[in-house]
Amino acid sequence: MATDSKQRPVYVISVAAELVDMHPQTLRLYERKGLIRPGRSSGKTRLYSERDIEHLREIRRLTQELGVNLAGVEEVMRLQHELDDLQGEFEAEIERLEDELRERATAPQPLPAPDGKLDPRDRPVYVISIAAELVDMHPQTLRLYERKQLIRPGRSSGKTRLYSERDIEHLREIRRLTQELGVNLAGVEEIMRLRHQLDSARAHMEGNVQRLQQDISDRMTSWRTLPAPERQAGPEDGDEGDGESGK
C-alpha cells in the first residue's frame, strides 16, 4: 500500500537532515517538542520515513516562509499527526470489515443498521450576534474570519449566517491560538485548514465505514433469504423407486 511505504522508516538522521536542509540537532529538538516522530531500529537508531521528511519540510515552510512561531507549529503538526493516525485507523477498519465479511460469508449474522443522522454539532442554529456573544468576539471579527476561510458558517434560506456548535468550537480555538499562544494569522489559517481537513476526513471515514457495514448487513440479509437448494435424488432414492415399480 502506498501509505505504508511512506511511513516505512528508512533514513538515518544525517540523511534526513540533508534531505530537508537542517542540522541533525534541529531534528532532535523537533522530536523532543513532539513535532516529528521518527521510528527506531532494533539498535535504537533514529530512522525517518518519507512522511517524516514531508513533515519536516512543512515545519520549515511554516517557520521560514510564513513566520509561524513554535507554538503555532506545534498545533499544526499535532493536527497533521492526527490526520496520519486517522488514515491508519481508517485503513485498519476497512481491513477489519473486509475480514469480517469473508468470515461471515459462511455463518451470516445480522449487523446493526448504521446511523446516518447528521451530527448535532454541525447543525447551523446561531445567528451571528449570538455566536459572537458566545465566543466573546465582535460580529465583524467573525465576518473577517469567514473571509479568511477560518470559519465556514451555514446559511438560512434567506442567506442569514447560521453558526453550529462546531463553528463555536473553532472560533474558541482561534481565540486560544491568537490570544494565548500568540500565533499569527498565517499560522491560524494553516491550523484551521487542517482542522477542517481533519473533520472532513473523519466524516468521510465514518461514512465509508457505515456504507461497508450496510453492505455487510445487506449481504447477510440476502444470504439468509436465499431459497434452500433442492435435494437431488441419490442412488438410494433411485433403488427404492425401482423396487416399488416392480411390485
UniProtKB/TrEMBL annotation:
The record's NCBIfam families line, in alphabetical order, gives: heat_HspR_dupli, HeatShock_HspR
What CDD domains does the entry give?
HTH_HspR
Q: Where is the signal peptide?
A: none
**InterPro entries given for it?**
DNA-bd_dom_put_sf (IPR009061), MerR-type_HTH_dom (IPR000551), MerR_fam (IPR047057)
This protein's superkingdom? Answer: Bacteria
Q: Where are the transmembrane segments?
A: none
Q: Give the Acidic residues compositional bias ranges.
A: 236-247
Entry protein name:
HTH merR-type domain-containing protein
Q: Where is the HTH merR-type domain?
A: 10-79, 125-194
Q: State the coiled-coil residue ranges.
A: 76-103
A Pfam family recorded for this sequence: MerR_1
Q: Which UniProt keywords apply?
A: Coiled coil, DNA-binding
Per the record, which residues fall in region Disordered?
221-247
